Amino acid sequence: MAEQFPGAVLDLLEAAGDRPVFEHGDRVVTGAHLLAQVRRVTSGLRRHGVRPGDGVALLLGVHPEAFAAVLAAHAVGARVVGLRPGLTEGQRRHLLAGTAFRVTDRPDGTATGAPGGTVLALDGLLAAEDDGRRPQISGRPQDVARLIHTSGSTGRPKACAQTYAAMTAAWTLHPDRWPPAVRELAPRLERFLVFGTLASQVVMEYGLLALAAGGTLVTAENPAFPDSLVRHRATGSVITVARLNKLVARVRERPVDLGSLRALMVSGSPIGPARLREAAEVLGPVVFHGYGQTETGMISMATPYDEPGSLGVPPVDVEVRDAEGRPVPPGTDGELFVRTPSQGCGYWNEPALSAEVFTDGWVRTRDIGHLDDQGRLWLTGRARDVVIVNAQVHYAGPVERVLAAHPAVAEAYVVAVPDDTTGEAVHAYVVPRPGRTPRLQELRALVAAELGEATAPARLTLIDEVPLTPAGKPDKRALAARG
Description:
α3 (64-75) links the parallel β3 (55-59) and β4 (79-82). The chain is 29% helix and 27% strand. It has an eight-stranded mixed beta sheet. Strands 6-5-3-4-7-8-17 form a seven-stranded mixed beta sheet. It has helices at residues 7-16, 31-47, 64-75, 89-96, 122-126, 164-169, 180-185, 201-212, 227-231, 241-253, 273-283, 351-357, 396-404, 440-451, 476-482; strands spanning 20-24, 27-30, 55-59, 79-82, 101-104, 118-121, 144-149, 159-163, 191-194, 216-219, 236-239, 263-266, 287-293, 297-302, 317-321, 334-339, 346-347, 358-359, 362-371, 377-382, 386-389, 392-395, 409-419, 423-432, 459-462. The relative contact order is 0.09. α13 crosses α14 (440-451). By secondary structure, the chain is of the alpha/beta class.
């Protein structure tokens, strides 16, 4: 039986030896040095009593030591929870609940959030003795290896649970299993720019892919494209649709030398064929358009040479089903159901929702699309009422409920509108209470305080009544068509 994750990562670091695997500021960290950090943090965690199955929250920046801490937490078999920036205090408390240990790199060695739990300073863990031996991998196949949290637009982020067996089955660390699109992508990640948070599923997955391809992870504290790409001589990075659009406009207006750039992985939001063609014209053949979900990992990926708008041929099982759950023929739209080797096993402590999405070994994506006669995947819509802001999915219902709680609001309806800065943004249509006039800034502040800034309305339209469908339900398509 194969050794559980992160055994394959430790093998990569050992094989790298004196080769640089991380650049952080003026520091160059070799595979051997990073592996020594993993050994020390693993030893420190075990010394403090962390055992397989324990919940460990990571409140860390983006640097080699943080990466070592992630690997060490998995080496001891913990249930790892990463906290990303931008959470409200309530969301942070929710994510920390149930974690027995919190690892932080904050200078004072403290962590804010839910009470309880043992706080461990990363510096202290790194001070543990290095015995020079390869860390023992303690993860058990069916234990939950990590909880990957959704955006939290419901007020409480949902946690998708992924087992050690699923993480071990992922193709990322095994070149012999790479799908064709990934074989095209991987060699381009020679200098992979990482930023934001290692709690990001996308950043971590592509970071591991870069290491498996012999690349180096290069950190950027406050990335600004294209300047960070130029300064760090990056050959690849992840990018949101909104940031890609801004990058294309900036380079078109003021050209810079992006000769080192070979790959930008864009995912999380739809991007139209016209935008992809413009990006290729300005940046060259560098855009890889990926499609995946928190629950599934990567489902499909288009290379720069695929037809714009297509998501390529999925390397995983995809079924397109009608409303009765029956498979439909090529060219026919339906809801996408997928199976991937590394998919989640359900939502943590949410059995009803798990049963709705994880069904008979398949994951219900709640996205609409079709497969053409060449097996290529095309997305055409959503079965979910969501707004995708900076590649994060936010559900409309919770935003509507918060808006409707405002004393000047009788009814509230939310739709997604295109936004050059964030990809999509919240447009709120509001029926005011008699004699009252709600203001955009008041509604923004209310939603931001409850659900986070990303879901705060960017636009507000006052309406006398909501249009209805023939079935008597609110017609959000009619609202969206108003612009």
